[in-house]
């Protein structure tokens, strides 16, 4: 049984799409479809139900996928079993990172990691929206904030301390708030992935619980760079991780306000799809990312 065809089937099953699998694998859709068809002929059963709207696993396909993923993991371990340690890791890694962490923390340390493993090919996504590691084919993601319900494996790393920020120009024009009641005379820049006002307001922690104080929003953004830029431009108050703003505080370009009413620290976690045996390159990447990121976080 062809391992390449097993990988193709695994990706089609994960994405529930021949088209998306072909795009991720760099193959034509016909090549992907033919590979799955050959597997079905060899096995004597249908693995996928195809309609014009969806692709889904059959009951036989569900059983085969579980064994397929185990075989692919075993094959990768066998392939590297007798390779000299000096050759390092090999293969592709796809990682999704928050923009600020990628720019300020991880990419500056990446040259040493790649020098130690020159046969690795690393793809890094730096989006501010929450990707689906399984559907979008990521080996691991670094996530900031609550995880919610997930079937992914989560590796907690620590927490990001939060702070409330304003520009000197904004404070000169609107005054400095000293209480929650003062916020009625101020404007908030709201961060929302879908540019929605849902959940807008001033967050703060009280008695171990998150409270939300309503206040008007001047602007809604869905990216961390735009969020910080809006504050620097004097468009309103923001609530952001101190880690990404400390240099601006040190330079006097931003000012901290209402330190007694800050949001709860944000959890930082590494997420990856559950597998019986992680490929060596993914396990090594997870350990490396944890080692690079954890020193920048507060204890869990």
UniProtKB/TrEMBL annotation:
Gene3D superfamilies (alphabetical): 3.40.190.290, Winged helix-like DNA-binding domain superfamily/Winged helix DNA-binding domain (1.10.10.10)
Keyword Transcription regulation annotated: yes
Pfam families to which the protein is assigned, alphabetical: HTH_1, LysR_substrate
UniProt KW keywords: DNA-binding, Plasmid, Transcription, Transcription regulation
Origin superkingdom: Bacteria
The HTH lysR-type domain, residue ranges: 1-58
InterPro entries, per database record: LysR-type_TF_proteobact-type, LysR_HTH_N, LysR_subst-bd, WH-like_DNA-bd_sf, WH_DNA-bd_sf
SUPFAM superfamilies: Periplasmic binding protein-like II (SSF53850), Winged helix' DNA-binding domain (SSF46785)
Family, as annotated: Belongs to the LysR transcriptional regulatory family.
Name assigned to this protein: LysR family transcriptional regulator
Taxonomic lineage: Bacteria, Pseudomonadati, Pseudomonadota, Betaproteobacteria, Burkholderiales
